[in-house]
Design goal:
146 residues; alpha+beta; Endonuclease I-creI; two-stranded antiparallel ribbon; 5 helices; 6 strands; 26% strand; globular
Length: 146
């Protein structure tokens, strides 16, 4: 992980590591980096399952909410959520993808938002989502942090 941070610094992206119960997170706040990651995403789906579960864990922690016994990832990119759904369904975990239209007053705020509901059986897989780890802890505030 330290190599990743050093690489990010070389390309002038500030990042930092967080070690939480054996799961290491790399945090980067950058639109440029996000654009790069979107392009790289197309290649990710050929990676090993453990890597994919890490990507899904990151999506849950960044774009997800947990409450009322469910895990929901919200994203504007339908293709990402369709791929996540496909991977999770291979593990026989129920998912449901639906669309919600954002109804802003101006046209620029009117767009589709996609939501993926994931069965809580996901907590039984080997992953590093901090929000999912809090699912049964009783700490409801912790599940929606970040």
């Amino acid at each position: 992980m330290l190599k990743v941070v050093l690489l990010l610094k070389k390309i002038e992206l500030n990042s930092y590591l967080i070690n939480n119960n054996g799961c290491v997170e790399v945090k980067v706040n950058s639109i440029l980096f996000m654009d790069y990651m979107k392009e790289s995403l197309k290649k990710w789906w050929d990676e090993p399952e453990s890597y994919l579960l890490g990507v899904i864990s990151g999506l849950i922690d960044s774009d997800g909410n947990i409450g009322n016994g469910e895990i929901v990832i919200t994203n504007k990119n339908k293709s990402i959520l369709k791929k996540v759904k496909e991977i999770i369904n291979k593990k026989n975990i129920h998912t449901k993808l639906w669309i919600k239209q954002n109804k802003g007053k101006e046209d620029k705020w009117k767009f589709n938002i996609y939501k993926l509901r994931i069965g809580t059986a996901l907590k039984n897989l080997d992953h590093c989502s901090l929000k999912v780890k809090f699912l049964n802890s009783g700490d409801s505030a912790a599940t929606n942090r970040h």
